[in-house]
Structures are given as structure tokens and as C-alpha cells.
Amino acid sequence: MKRLLCCIGVLFVFASLLCAAPCKKVSKKAEGKPVPAQRWSEEKANAWYESQDWPVGCVFVPSNTGTPVDMWAADTFDEELIDRELGMAESLGFNAIRLFMCDIVWQNDRDGYMERLEKYLSLSDKHGIKILLTFFTNGGKIKNPYMDPRPQPVPGIHNSIWMSSPGRDVVNNPDKWPVMEEYLKCVMTKYKDDPRVLAWCLYNEPENTKTFNTLPFLESVYRWAREVNPSQPLTSPIWSLPGGGNCNMPIQAFVLSNSDVISFHCYDNSEVCGRYVRLLKQFNRPIFCSEWMARTKGSDYFTILPIFKRNKVASFSYGLVNSKQQCHYPWNPKDKDGKDIPYEEEPPVWFHDLFRTDGTPWNPDEIIFIRSLTGK
Q1: Which residues contact 238 (CB under 8 A, 6 or more apart)?
Q2: Which domains does the chain possess?
Q3: Which tens digits make up the pLDDT trace of 131-163?
Q4: pTM exceeding the 0.85 threshold for the entire prediction
């Protein structure tokens, strides 16, 4: 406990030193660019959140897809399927989804991509659902995304073909960032005042940095977003308690001191999840848990969702309908060479996801419990 408190103290020192550093006002004359907006005040962030219903929902990946490219490419974008599966979310009383976007599809088909994004927003609005739009991520086994040929899931492997975005080669090469700036500003400028957009997650899992030099790119991403100055809040999640084995203190300090609302991921049990909530409440800002649920690790709806409702923490569990991501499998054990060992049978307890593709719930009691908390 003393070690954790010490690490928390260090984190707050980092946060105070970095606060607004990349987002401070600069002279238009000196830079020739728009003056970036500032981080929302605590008062503005909390007033905005008070005007929202408790956001509760999930990370949404249509069941016919296993990569961000599949989600957004014209030949795999299935409007009828998306409509049906968003209807499943609505049936639970969900009023929010988290949606990953894909820069490489935008680069290859800008007009088509923007049309499909509009369809997502229209369909979600039809079902009374707002969207937490997510731009970039270091997550995924494929570290440099590509359009074709499309990878197919490896049997028995959890999330075997997910792609990073924009990918390691872009994140680590500042010469390639202008296209990413154009992409972010294209999307955000169009939807900066759209009430169908709940908030913007600028960067998913920025602490996932094994081969990524993330912090410089992350700082630029926040600056670009502040130049657009959307009416919705900005955020990026931490994914480890300060002092934890996966903690990247400089990145945590940056996102905690530059985000309008605080977000985190927790695939652990209710005791650990409660520690996150208690820690992050000290920032006196709205809190989002933008990824959670790992049933075999003690993170399930019966134990976690009541914590979020009691504390009005925005909730986005991972997965809705079992998809080509194969996230019903737990994280795979490794062999002596560090490779995933595939599962040969369906797990007795699903790791993520709520429904089978035919609409049958994995656990009917879980569905009843969710509806009891959402009022559905």
C-alpha cells in the first residue's frame, strides 16, 4: 500500500508538471496555425456529465468482422447486420457504444468512409445510442495495418487478427503524421458539434508501447484535437494502476493531465476495479471505463456494473455479439517460444461478449441482470 501511495504521489507530480504542456496557447503569428483550445475545466467537464444519462454500453464490433479494416471497408460493411446488432444493444438498455475507427480505410476511400461513418451514427441514433469514437490504438497482433489480403481468424485464438492504427511504422515516423492530422481533423471537424457523438477517445491503450514510441505522437494527437475544439470531451485510457507492472508513468501523467474526462481499462475483479474508481475520483472529473469484462478473471456484470452505476462511471464492456474476433476465448496461454496455444473447444465460461450471432444470450440470467440496472 505504501508503494502504491508513493506511485500515486509521483503520478500527481508528473501530472502537474505536464498539465496542458502540449496544449498551451501559442501565437498564431509565430506558428501560423490555429490557437489550440484548452483542456476543459473541472466545472465544465462535470456540468457536461451532469447533463448526460449514465452512459452504459459496450465496445461494438459487428459479428462479421475481425479487424478495423473489415469494420469499415465497403465490401464488408453490412448495414442490415449493424442495425440488427445495435438493436440487441438497445434491448439491454444500452445507450452508448464505443466504436473503433480506421485511418487506412479512410486513406483509401475517403468519401466512402465518411458515408459509412454517417450510417453508423444514424443507426446508433435510431436505437437511442450515442457513440464514443476512438481514433488510434496500439492494440492488436498486427502492428502495421493493411487493406488486402484480409487476414482470417486463427481457430482457437483470442482476437488473432486485430490491427493497430495507424500502426508502428507511422507512430514511430513523424514524417507520416501530417496524413494522420488530416484524418483526425476531417472526421472531428464534421462531427465536432454532433449530439450523436458522446465523446472522443483519441488514443486507445497508449501505454502499450513495446515497439511504439507513442508519447510524441500522442502529444501531437491531442494538439490536433484541441485545434478543432469539439463540443464533446476528449480522453484516452490508462490501463494499469500507477506503479503496476505495465504502467508507463509519463504517458499516464500526460493523458490524466490533458483529458477532459478520465478513462481507464480494467479486466480485473471488483476489488481492483474499485481501487481504480477511488483513485481516479481524486481528479474530480467524470470517469469512463472504456474497456472491461473478463469473466474468468472475476470481471463480470454481476460484480462490476453495480460499482459503475453507484459511482456513475461510464461503462463499456468488451463485446456484444460473438464475432470473428473470437473474444469468447480467454487470453491464450503461451508455449515455450511465446506463441499462443489455441483452444480446441468453446470455453465453458465466455471471456467477452454477450450474444451468439443468432441473438441467443450466452447467459440469460446476465441479460436479466443488465436490464435490471439499466431500467430496461
Answers
A1: 207, 252, 255, 256, 263, 264, 265
A2: 2-15+54-374 (3.20.20.80)
A3: 999 999 999 999 999 999 999 999 999 999 999
A4: yes
